[in-house]
């Protein structure tokens, strides 16, 4: 097998002209029967690294995946490209299973997706011995490790694979593994002479934005306006919020639904399918939504609440822009989120220092005053040598002011309140509020009462957060979140140390993104182009008729290419990225016809 042959398969079955970084090398290694570990971000293109060797070799490739929804998507996608694939998991009837087993025995299946539960059953391991296996791919391989963030005990039993099939290459794939997890994967699967392929985790097409968690609804509505008709997800911490958010958006005329683990499974599937098939624009969901969703045309992700760690954050925003188009992400941050997570961790039976540390890193990211992508990538062990130019900090560097007096007011109030109050009460005292509890406790009698009334409540919130970040104030989470001053704070109070603060930001998303580059504007134009609309409608009609997701016909990126190059013959259509021989035959005529009608009208 040589490079020309594999490139030919890439074109013929998947319609792509070129490999992405590392894909070719991984494929060649698998073809040479070598074990591989593939660490690539979501959307990086992991699937074809085992699909192409599977197509090229005799026998059946086993793909082990814990995600039933993902299996169906992947199999549908492969079938749409003319590859013989099936899946086996608990969602099938026994008749369906028998049917697939017959096909397997007849050598009619090139790629078999299978859940770990199914694979490790005694019956199936015996059945497997009668088949010719070409390779074994283990997707979501981080699930094998207790150090990873999604441990699945069934995965630890997969070590039998190497013992039973020492000659068959194993390829372990994941989008989320730090060094410890990566080592653990290799050890537990007993991989030998492993060749690691670790690609950059950077997703430059995702814009990163963080806004203070005040007036969230207004900001969300603004944001969605700039993403008209584009599919997106709003992640919320509480189930109730997902429901409220969805009904609010519906009231504003958007097509939106909610999704959380408290709903019946059937309704969950229904909502998920509606979203995948472009029948709903917006999903308001808890983190229960999205595992294994391979929808390439999600263009934005909002975090109504801060996620609990950067792995989750990256995985969730990573669901946007999978086809490489520009996608926007927006996260709201408020101190309440930190308090909530800390109490979750404290209450969980095996609360660990690691979880607190991860939360801390998440918070540092949210409060960053320097390029966010640098911080994010450094968490995953990568170094970015220049600022990204596609995050809110790069687009709007913060302005600073001398905050010494502001800091002194807050710190001295904390001292006079005997370090007994939490953030909101502190602000009320500084602003001279006349609330019942405050008056009952006679906080209106302390010397700093009302000294900060010229500063708004919201500004105070942001200043105090900064003082916490800069190490002048600490929160005693175990004492009703009361604020304490630190050693460094004493130096500020004694006028030995000056404090610099950033001006509070009240920008909305549109202000943050005025500096969109030309390429982005060009993209926006393409999407508004009426040919794009026509092709989109055509695609939707075909998908509805065949009862498959629209992106399985062609992705948005492929439609955009058609709008740019306007192929008027089926031969030229084949040159478009994403159009393989199978799809050319199936859809070529009808798409070329639509383009010709557009050009002649
Ligand atoms: P992952 O499993 O790493 O999250 P996928 O394998 O699902 O990512 O690939 C993400 C998207 O990129 C898919 O739509 C896939 O068809 C596309 N893709 C993969 N390889 C290429 C390539 N060489 N050229 C263009 N698109 C590609
Ligand atoms: Zn940046």
Question: Do you know the CATH topology of the largest domain?
Answer: Rossmann fold
| Total number of helices | 29
Largest sheet: 7 strands, parallel
Q: Give helix % range.
A: 40-55%
Under CATH at level 1, the class of the largest domain stands as: Alpha Beta
What is the subunit organization of this protein?
A: single chain
CATH superfamily of the largest domain: P-loop containing nucleotide triphosphate hydrolases
Radius of gyration: 27 Å
Low-confidence stretches: 515-521
Q: State the end-to-end distance.
A: 48 Å
Q: Kindly report the average pLDDT value.
A: 89
Global structural class: alpha/beta
The shape is globular
Bound small molecules, deduplicated: adenosine-5'-diphosphate, zinc ion
Widest sheet: strand order?
A: 3-4-2-5-6-1-7
Kindly estimate the percentage of residues that lie in beta strands according to DSSP.
5-15%
How many β strands by DSSP? 17
Number of domains: 4
CATH architecture of the largest domain: 3-Layer(aba) Sandwich
Characteristic terms for this protein:
601 residues, alpha/beta, Rossmann fold, Arc Repressor Mutant, subunit A, 4 domains, 6-stranded parallel β-sheet, 29 helices, 17 strands, 47% helix, 13% strand, binds adenosine-5'-diphosphate, binds zinc ion
Architecture blueprint of SSEs:
Elements: H1 3-14, H2 23-31, E1 36-39, H3 47-56, E2 60-64, H4 68-80, E3 85-88, H5 94-105, E4 111-114, H6 116-120, H7 122-129, E5 133-138, H8 160-164, E6 170-174, H9 179-189, E7 195-198, E8 206-212, H10 216-226, E9 231-235, H11 239-251, E10 256-259, H12 265-276, E11 282-285, E12 298-303, H13 310-317, E13 327-333, H14 335-347, H15 353-366, H16 372-379, H17 392-395, E14 400-402, H18 404-416, H19 423-430, H20 436-440, H21 457-469, E15 473-476, E16 482-485, H22 487-493, E17 500-502, H23 509-512, H24 518-528, H25 530-546, H26 550-553, H27 556-565, H28 570-573, H29 581-600
Parallel strand pairs: 1-6, 1-7, 2-4, 2-5, 3-4, 5-6, 8-13, 9-11, 9-12, 10-11, 12-13
Antiparallel strand pairs: 14-17, 15-16
Adenosine-5'-diphosphate is lined by residues 16, 18-20, 23, 40, 42-48, 294, 296, 322-323, 555, 577.
């Amino acid at each position: 097998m040589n490079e020309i042959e594999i490139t030919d398969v890439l074109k013929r079955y998947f319609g792509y002209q070129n490999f992405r970084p590392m894909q070719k090398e991984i494929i060649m290694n698998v073809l040479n029967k070598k074990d591989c570990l593939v660490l690539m971000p979501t959307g990086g293109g992991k699937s074809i690294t085992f699909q192409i060797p599977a197509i090229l070799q005799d026998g059946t490739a086993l793909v082990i995946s814990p995600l039933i929804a993902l299996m169906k998507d992947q199999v549908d996608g492969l079938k749409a490209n003319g590859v013989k694939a099936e899946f086996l998991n608990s969602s099938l009837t026994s008749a369906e299973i028998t049917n697939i087993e017959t096909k397997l025995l007849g050598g009619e299946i090139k790629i078999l997706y299978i859940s770990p539960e199914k694979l490790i059953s005694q019956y199936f391991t015996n059945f497997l011995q009668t088949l010719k296996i070409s390779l074994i791919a283990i997707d979501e391989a981080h699930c094998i490790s207790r150090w990873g963030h999604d441990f699945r005990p069934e995965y630890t039993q997969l070590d039998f694979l190497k013992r039973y099939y020492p000659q068959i290459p194993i390829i372990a794939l994941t989008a989320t593994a730090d060094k410890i997890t990566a080592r653990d994967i290799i050890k537990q699967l007993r991989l030998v002479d492993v060749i690691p392929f670790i690609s950059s985790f950077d997703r430059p097409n995702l814009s990163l934005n963080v806004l203070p968690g005040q007036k969230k609804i207004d900001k969300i509505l603004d944001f969605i306006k700039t993403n008209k008709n584009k599919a997106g997800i709003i992640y919320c911490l509480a189930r109730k919020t997902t429901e409220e958010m969805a009904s609010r958006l519906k009231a504003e005329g958007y097509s939106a639904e909610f999704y959380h683990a408290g709903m019946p499974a059937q309704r969950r599937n229904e909502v998920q399918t509606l979203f995948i098939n472009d029948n709903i624009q917006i999903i308001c969901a808890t983190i229960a939504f999205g595992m294994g969703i391979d929808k390439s045309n999600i263009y934005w992700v909002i975090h109504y609440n801060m996620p609990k760690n950067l792995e989750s954050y990256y995985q969730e925003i990573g669901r946007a822009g999978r086809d490489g188009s520009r996608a926007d992400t927006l996260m709201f941050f408020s101190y309440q989120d930190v308090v909530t997570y800390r109490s979750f961790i404290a209450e969980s039976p095996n609360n660990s220092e690691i979880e607190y540390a991860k939360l801390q890193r998440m918070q540092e990211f949210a409060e960053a005053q320097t390029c966010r992508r640098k911080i994010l990538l450094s968490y995953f062990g990568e170094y970015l040598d220049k600022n990204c130019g596609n995050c809110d900090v790069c687009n709007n560097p913060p302005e600073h002011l001398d905050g010494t007096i502001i800091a002194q007011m807050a710190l001295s109030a904390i001292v006079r309140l005997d370090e007994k109050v939490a953030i909101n009460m502190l602000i009320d005292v500084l602003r001279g509020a006349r609330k019942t509890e405050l008056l009952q406790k006679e906080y209106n009698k302390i010397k700093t009462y009302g000294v900060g009334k010229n500063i708004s409540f919201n500004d105070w919130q942001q200043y105090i957060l900064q003082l916490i970040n800069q190490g002048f104030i600490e929160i005693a989470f175990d004492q009703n979140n009361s604020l304490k001053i630190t050693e460094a704070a004493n130096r500020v109070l004694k006028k030995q140390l000056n404090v610099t603060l950033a001006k509070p930001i009240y920008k909305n998303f549109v202000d943050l993104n005025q500096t969109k580059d030309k390429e982005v504007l060009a993209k926006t134009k393409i999407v508004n182009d009426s040919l794009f609309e026509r092709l989109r409608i055509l695609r939707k009609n075909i998908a509805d008729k065949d009862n498959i997701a629209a992106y399985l016909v062609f992705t948005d990126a492929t439609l955009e290419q058609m709008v740019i190059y306007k192929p008027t013959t089926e031969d030229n259509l084949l040159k478009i990225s994403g159009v393989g021989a199978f799809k050319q035959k199936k859809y070529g005529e009808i798409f070329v016809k639509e383009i010709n009608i557009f050009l002649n009208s």
